[in-house]
Amino acid sequence: MAGQDLLHTQPRPMHWLATATALSAVVAAASFLQPADATATTSRDATTGRHPAAAPDPAKVTFPVDCGPYRLDVVKKVSADLDGDGTTETVAAVRCHSGTGTPPTGVYVLAQPTRAGTAPRFVATLVAPAQQLTAQTLTVRHGSISAAFLGYSTRDVPRCCPDTHKSLKWQWKGGKFVQSELPAAMGTARA
C-alpha cells in the first residue's frame, strides 16, 4: 500500500503520549478561561427574594427509634416543599440495621431548624415502627407523599416473610398531614 513507509502513518507510543498531553493541556486551559461576567448563582424564591435553604439532613437528627445495640439506618429519603410555605421538608424512612429479616420502618417528616446550627425539627410521624410495616418505596409528587409497604396479616406470620402489601398517601391539609390508602395496592403479597 502506498504511504505505509511514511512515519506519521505508523503511530508509536510516543505519538499517543504527545496527543494525550496536548489534549490535557487544552482541557486544562479551557477550565481556567471563563467569560468575564460568569458567576455562579442559585435561584431565589420569587416571593421572599432569599435563596432557598437546603433540605433538612436526616443524618443530623436523633430519631425516636430504639435500636438497642444496632445502628439506625436511613433507608429512603425525599425532599420537597410539602406544605406550600416555600421551604423544603425532608421525608425520611428509617429502621434498625439488620442483616436478616425485615425490620419495621418509621417514616418521619423533618423541617428546617428554628435556630441556625441546631438539628432539623420533627414535623410529623407518618408511620411508627410499632405499626410493623417495612417501606419499599417512598416518593413525593406535587406535594403528596406516597409510600408502599410490606406488612403482616397476623402475629403468626414469621417476621422474615411479610405477606401483605399496602400503599399509603399523605397530603398537607388543614395544618396537618392527612393519610389515605391507595385502594389498588391493598392485598396479600405474592411470592
Structure notes:
It contains 1 helix and 9 strands. The chain is mainly beta and 191 residues long. It has a domain at 72-181. A hairpin with an 8-residue loop joins strand 1 and strand 2 (89-96). The chain starts with 12 loop residues before the first helix and ends with a strand. The model is unreliable at 34-48 and 185-191 (pLDDT under 50).
Largest pleated sheet: 5 strands, antiparallel
Number of helices, where a helix is a run of at least 4 consecutive DSSP H or I residues: 1
The fraction of residues in strands falls at: 25-35%
**What is the succession of H and E elements?**
HEEEEEEEEE
- Runs with pLDDT <50, length 5+? 34-48, 185-191
Structural class: mainly beta
* Total E-strand runs: 9
> What is the distance, rounded to the nearest whole angstrom, between the alpha carbons of the first and last residues?
66 Å
- Rg from Cα: 27 Å
| Helix proportion range | 10-25%
Q: Tell me the overall shape.
A: extended
Provide the residue-averaged pLDDT. 79
Protein name: Secreted protein
